[in-house]
Amino acid sequence: MAITIKLGTTTDNVDKVGKTYTEATPSGGVVIEPTSIIDPINPKFIINRDDNYINCNYCEASFLGRKYFAKVSVDTGSRMVVDCTVDYLSSFDLSNCPITVVRNGDIGSPTVIQDNKYPIAPNREKLQQIPISNNNFTANGNSCYVLQVIGGAANVSE
Question: What is the rounded CA–CA span in Å between residue 25 and residue 27?
Answer without folding.
Answer: 7
